[in-house]
Amino acid sequence: MMLKNRLTALVAVAAIAVPAVVYAAGKFSKVSGKGSVVNITGHAPAVNFTAVASDDAITVEDDGTTIKVSINGHKMKTGSDLRDEHMRGQVFAKGKTVALSVTHADLDAGLKSGKVKGSLKFSDKPPASITIEGVTLKDGVVKGKFATKRSALQIPEACMPPIKAPCTKDELEVEATIYVSQ
């Protein structure tokens, strides 16, 4: 094999192996103050909106087998005080949270393909299976996105009065950037 082909093959193997080695180094924890963010975009008849969970609303727990990313809904912001009030009162009442769980094995496999299987759970409801797309882990930053349905998570529909028709569509898009250390 020509030297150029050997170098190309070596670079390709390294591109796949390095994230797995970095990942295998230990448990994940979130690095606070770096600007981690999770954006949840919903759609309503009149307007689309994005609820933003910034650094202080996100926690990362890792027991060595499963990585769990939780969002405190009371700290999320949509850019509208009235919408925030309704979201906290109707959707995230009494400390309800959204939690994403991914096993280390699924993350390891997913770093090679860019797709990671996981589960998403809203408060005390049963978890829904999801596939996170475009997953990357580079320089201590994990990124990924996925779509899900509000109904699959059994999240109640948030409705701002005086609207009496369906208030929000079922589709949700989630995009995350989380700064981590191992």
Can you summarize this structure?
With 182 residues, the protein is of the alpha+beta class. It is 24% helix and 40% strand. The chain has helices at 3-24, 81-91, 104-113; strands spanning 29-30, 37-43, 48-54, 58-62, 66-72, 97-103, 116-122, 128-138, 141-149, 171-181.
Q: Which structural class matches the secondary elements?
A: alpha+beta
- Largest sheet data: 10 strands, antiparallel
Which sequence of SSEs, written as H and E, runs from N to C? HEEEEEHEHEEEE
Overall pLDDT confidence = 78
Count of DSSP strands: 10
How much helix, percentage-wise, in residues?
Answer: 10-25%
Distance between the termini: 38 Å
- Unreliable runs: 1-25
Count of helical stretches: 3
Assembly type of the chains comes to single chain
**How big a fraction of the residues is strand?**
35-45%
- Principal-axes geometry comes out as globular
Gyration radius from CA atoms, angstroms? 19 Å
Keywords:
182 residues; alpha+beta; 10 strands; 40% strand
Q: What does this protein structure show overall?
A:
- The chain is an alpha+beta fold and 182 residues long.
- It contains 3 helices and 10 strands, in the order αβββββαβαββββ.
- It has helices spanning 3-24, 81-91, 104-113; strands at 29-30, 37-43, 48-54, 58-62, 66-72, 97-103, 116-122, 128-138, 141-149, 171-181.
- Strands 1, 2, 3, 4, 5, 6, 7, 8, 9 and 10 form a 10-stranded antiparallel β-sheet that branches.
List the helices and strands and how they pair.
Blueprint (H helix, E strand, L loop, with lengths): L2 H22 L4 E2 L6 E7 L4 E7 L3 E5 L3 E7 L8 H11 L5 E7 H10 L2 E7 L5 E11 L2 E9 L21 E11 L1
Antiparallel strand pairs: 1-10, 2-3, 2-10, 4-5, 5-6, 6-7, 7-8, 8-9, 9-10
Helix pairs in contact: 1-3
